Amino acid sequence: MRNANGNRLATVMLLVMPLMIYLLFYLYPLLTVASQSVDNSTLYEQFQTLSEVVEEGSPDERAAALVADLVAADRRDLAEAARNLNQERSGFRSLLINSGKKAEEIPPTMEGLIAFDKRWGQQVYWDILARNIAPITWRHFQKASGFKPDGDGGFVQAEGDDIYLRIMVRTIVIATQVTLLTLLVGYPLAYAAANGKPRLATIVFMVVLLSFWTSILVRTSAWVVLLQTHGLLNNLLISLRIISEPLQLIFNRFGTVVAMTHVLLPFAILPIFNVMRTIPVSQSDASRSLGAGGVETFLRVYFPQTLRGVAVGGGTVFILALGFYITPALTGGPSDQMLSYYIADFVKKSLNWGMASVLSVMLFGCVVLILGLGSGAWLLFKSRKGGH
Amino acid sequence: MSRAIYWISLVLSMLFLALPLLLVLPLAFNESSFLTYPMEGFTLDWFKIAFTQPPWMPAFLNSLKVAFGAAVVAVVIGGLAAMGTMLSGRFGQIILSGLFISPIVIPSVVLGVAFTYAFGRAGFGGGYISLVLAHAILGAPLVFLSVMTSLKGLDPELERAAASMGASRAYRFRTVTLPLAAPGFMTGALFAFVTSFDEVVVALFLAAPQSTTLPIALFSGLRDRLEPTIIAVALMLSLLSLMFLLVLNWLQQRSRYKTRGK
């Protein structure tokens, strides 16, 4: 009993610091990303007076609240709010900023507002305000998905508004292509490392490990040198007279997929290798002695047992590929950039934390989905095995 | 037939894996500034440029500083976390392991956004502290995993033997368990160091101009203009990776030797 208590105390003591650091410098930052994706505090704080009357107040009450908010507004915050509202309806920026500049001269009634600018007479501007000054907003999610409320409780998607959904699909397509290729290329290498003659196995394994440890940037730069217009591959093909003009091998989908496959290859090979190592050679020998040919033995006896490794390797590569940024940025063209690129872009170019956060949440959601499917399949597999 | 398929696929895969670096890295010694064969003569000029001209040397030193700091912090967090997790119950172990390993599966861009926003608001700004902290979070799961592996591989009889001779829990932990698990800590530290040293994405988000790391310098060099200097730096980095791999191999052999006794 004394021992168990001592144990618990020691455990807590040991865990306090790592848990604190994870909480402060890891979980908290992730939570801020999640909250930023729906955060609307800039607009909410700007129009706090208005938000209390915007639903049920009379026109004059609303006008008075709006004027009061505009009078109290800080110039820079107002510009930021105007920029956000302008995304809903163009022209809102000028309307809001002009009204803000003269706010102190505008009489705080609806008539006074309309006399200052006719547009305040249109209901649509008030509707947009009402939708966008709540403390929480789905604006960024709507922009990312392209679906907007149509006013009757349904959703509509306007033509050309599906850009981020298409980028999402592109990201998944590239990740799938890369995963299939790494498995195809990685399987023979894992096989040789696990079952080849000792010398060959050691060499293959060392090359895989070395590749694993070499920085992604170094390997990507090798591909840039190989594939560029006057790069090694084009020069070789031209000197062999196979082609007369250099081929476009880089800054397109081909370059992206090939370089990503190379970079991610070790992550597919190592799990397959670990499973293959545990399969006894005697099984294949037994199958051969019972009259099965080499191909049949492989397909019916060996391959099914390696599927677990293939699933782990493929899953790892897929998850890593979904979040890739560096390799596509260096070897892809504008239409080969993945979700990560746009996330970084929103932060670096426009400090648009809302959009960056929404896309981050989408990317993270994909990863969690894959992990969930993977562990689900794993549990199913285990319970099946237990049932035998 | 099956042998032919095996050999053809093996040779092709091997070429795909090994050839790019084998072909490209020797160009670091090429006299011409065009990165192509045939080579026009042997020179070490590109290495000289890498050692003397900015941004390479300062970036390399920055990378060393950040990676060293990140590895130290990661070993403390990851090591304590592993020891604490080892001592907790079955259910606790699953939850804690999940939490401590989780940074591995989160896309680095997502972490980059999270760190930039949260650290920016906390006033760390861009620079060493935020970079070291962020990289420590990325490295801690690796330390955690490698210390967990080496703690799990220990023979429980050894601790029992020490207990039977009257050693207290703390004394046993300090004199028996920790020394035996030391290779696990070392391996973890190495992993954390290399992870930080090679990390680009989070660094691109967090680094200030004066704390530019080597991967950032390489990345912007590759985007700007591809020069042989970049290949020279890449070659040196590859040699460094080879060195790390050898050290790791040595550590693992040592830990095998220790846990098996004799």
In short:
With 388 residues, chain A is mainly α. Chain A contains 19 helices and two strands.
What do these coordinates show?
- The complex is a heterodimer of chains A (388) and B (262).
- Chain A has helices spanning 2-36, 41-46, 48-53, 59-72, 75-86, 92-101, 110-116, 123-132, 139-145, 163-195, 198-213, 216-227, 232-239, 253-276, 281-289, 294-322, 326-331, 339-350, 353-387; strands spanning 147-149, 155-157.
- Chain A is an all-alpha fold.
- Chain A has a two-stranded antiparallel sheet.
- In chain A, a hairpin with a 5-residue loop joins strand 1 and strand 2.
- Chain A is elongated, with a radius of gyration of 30 Å.
- With 262 residues, chain B is an all-alpha fold.
- Chain B has two domains: 1-43, no CATH class; 54-260, MetI-like (MetI-like fold), CATH 1.10.3720.10.
- Chain B is built from eleven helices and no strands.
- In chain B, helix 3 runs antiparallel to helix 8 (169-198) and helix 6 (128-152) crosses helix 8 (169-198).
The computed structural class of chain B is: mainly alpha
Percentage of β-strand residues of chain A: under 5%
Structural class of chain A: mainly alpha
CATH architecture of the largest domain in chain A: Orthogonal Bundle
Helix count of chain B equals: 11
Domain tally of chain A: 2
Q: Output the CATH topology of the largest domain in chain B.
A: MetI-like fold
User: What's the total count of β strands of chain B?
Assistant: 0
CATH-derived topology of the largest domain in chain A:
MetI-like fold
- Regions of chain A with pLDDT < 50 over 5+ consecutive residues? none
CATH class of the largest domain in chain A: Mainly Alpha
Q: Using the CA coordinates, give the radius of gyration of chain A.
A: 30 Å
- Give a short account of the largest sheet of chain A: 2 strands, antiparallel
Oligomeric state: heterodimer
- Helix tally of chain A equals 19
What is the strand and helix layout of this fold?
The complex is a heterodimer of chains A (388) and B (262).
Chain A: H1 2-36, H2 41-46, H3 48-53, H4 59-72, H5 75-86, H6 92-101, H7 110-116, H8 123-132, H9 139-145, E1 147-149, E2 155-157, H10 163-195, H11 198-213, H12 216-227, H13 232-239, H14 253-276, H15 281-289, H16 294-322, H17 326-331, H18 339-350, H19 353-387
Antiparallel strand pairs in A: 1-2
Chain B: H1 2-24, H2 45-52, H3 56-87, H4 90-101, H5 108-122, H6 128-152, H7 156-164, H8 169-198, H9 201-206, H10 214-224, H11 228-260
Helix pairs in contact in B: 2-11, 3-4, 3-6, 3-8, 3-10, 6-8, 7-8, 8-11
